[in-house]
Amino acid sequence: MLKPLGDRVILQAQEEETTVGGIVLASNAQEKPQTAKVVAVGDGRVLDNGEKVAPSVKEGETVLLDKYSGTEVKYEGASYLVVHEKDLVAIVD
Amino acid sequence: MLKPLGDRVILQAQEEETTVGGIVLASNAQEKPQTAKVVAVGDGRVLDNGEKVAPSVKEGETVLLDKYSGTEVKYEGASYLVVHEKDLVAIVD
Amino acid sequence: MLKPLGDRVILQAQEEETTVGGIVLASNAQEKPQTAKVVAVGDGRVLDNGEKVAPSVKEGETVLLDKYSGTEVKYEGASYLVVHEKDLVAIVD
Amino acid sequence: MLKPLGDRVILQAQEEETTVGGIVLASNAQEKPQTAKVVAVGDGRVLDNGEKVAPSVKEGETVLLDKYSGTEVKYEGASYLVVHEKDLVAIVD
Amino acid sequence: MLKPLGDRVILQAQEEETTVGGIVLASNAQEKPQTAKVVAVGDGRVLDNGEKVAPSVKEGETVLLDKYSGTEVKYEGASYLVVHEKDLVAIVD
Amino acid sequence: MLKPLGDRVILQAQEEETTVGGIVLASNAQEKPQTAKVVAVGDGRVLDNGEKVAPSVKEGETVLLDKYSGTEVKYEGASYLVVHEKDLVAIVD
Amino acid sequence: MLKPLGDRVILQAQEEETTVGGIVLASNAQEKPQTAKVVAVGDGRVLDNGEKVAPSVKEGETVLLDKYSGTEVKYEGASYLVVHEKDLVAIVD
């Protein structure tokens, strides 16, 4: 298991399938999906007064992220995206 | 639904129509509209003392924004602009 | 109406006319006027301790500004200059 | 009158004349004078705790300034130099 | 012994062996392992209020790190990687 | 007299003479002396909490300074070096 | 004597000799030693709240330092390396 440090959030890209008339189409490469699922969340960043601020997202939530943020890491064959919480744009309900 | 994180604000470009003698003219491409409608507002940024500062704009308000700020995101077919609150210039009453 | 956000100030360029022997001369293009009239003032910036600091200029005042500061915005046909308060050099009494 | 904003100080270049055997010589262009007279002083900068720190120089004092600091502004025909207080090097007694 | 200073963490690269049908394969050079073992941990960084924040990792833990972070140091023939705590991505349980 | 502002220190280059067998040699131009004498000291910098921190050097002390720091100023024919206190490396006892 | 200012530490490069079969070999130029001996330590840096934080190293200790940090200074014929405490990587026990 990966336990992210600080204000980091570990994400897993979501397979985005589009169904047209029952035919499942893979997502268009040019229109890279911007959503991902939160797999693990760090304890948060430490403020200058020593307080820790817990991230605003929770495991299992789907988030929208900026196209160019994050670092890809590989762990046990799977590939994940690690981002700092501030690079998450929105929660998708 | 998109719930913006931190001090982010989600905007939707406003269709700007100009009517001249009853004829509706599309807005001039060279003079890109600088106003947009606030669609969703984050909880605000966290100060160094741990306090959260709510953004100064509200859902439904029309805002004036800097020409080059923000990131375009696509969600359910529609396209939105996500900006940090500090990149909003003014509220248009 | 435009309500500037944060520590922003909205300015309107002043027509600077020079009269020589009764003849009104337009201001010299090379010697661009550096003064403008304050049209609207934001609520001010938020300090790290959560306090809000109101800008030091008021609507109606004439200010001297740095030559290269500010962003031009268009609103209802008129053109304004939006600057952060820190880019205003002096109040002209 | 110009009332500088923030930690700004308005200076007026001093005519530096050198007398050699009774003949007044203009200051050498290559050895640009680095002193100026304080014409007006702002209220000072606001600290992160909300306190205002008054500048350490007063109207009428002569100051030594860094060769490349400041911005020239024109006001009522005269030309002034506006600098942030931190760019003043020393007071000349 | 090396006692890291500040928020530094000393790591030792882990030998990553892959066994395929009983044959031990060296890790692929192109897929550089991103995990390392924590060998020593500093006392942590000092906050602006004078408090010291102990790092979140402990000696003996395995951590995931960003591909390009850290500085290699040599000590008594062995080679170590020294990173600032903020460059550690996650703890691997 | 020059009264330095803020955390500035005014230095005067020291003539460094080397005596070899009674013969006084001028210091080697390639090995520029790195020591100077403190001529005047400012009141110090203002911390974010409003406190003023007096510089750690005193008039008359000899200091070691970084080769490339400081700005040369001319005053009454003499030439001085003005540095910020943080650019002084050590006091030479 | 040199008394370092602020959070500076003065180091002296250690002669690193390698003995192979009784023959003392000079250290390899390509593998520049990364350890040095602490010769003098400053009083430490001043925090934003006015507190002074004493450096974590003491005179006489051997430290490991980053390859490219520090500035060389010459004093009384000997050459020293002056580094800010934050550029020291570890204490070598």
UniProtKB/TrEMBL annotation, chains A, B, C, D, E, F, G:
PROSITE patterns: CHAPERONINS_CPN10. The keyword Nucleotide-binding does not apply. Keywords: Chaperone, Cytoplasm. Pfam families: Cpn10 (PF00166). GO terms for cellular component: cytoplasm. GO terms for molecular function: ATP binding; metal ion binding; protein folding chaperone; protein-folding chaperone binding; unfolded protein binding. InterPro entries: Chaperonin_GroES, Chaperonin_GroES_sf, Chaprnonin_Cpn10_CS, GroES-like_sf. Heptamer of 7 subunits arranged in a ring. Interacts with the chaperonin GroEL. Belongs to the GroES chaperonin family. Together with the chaperonin GroEL, plays an essential role in assisting protein folding. The GroEL-GroES system forms a nano-cage that allows encapsulation of the non-native substrate proteins and provides a physical environment optimized to promote and accelerate protein folding. GroES binds to the apical surface of the GroEL ring, thereby capping the opening of the GroEL channel. This is Co-chaperonin GroES. It comes from Secundilactobacillus paracollinoides.
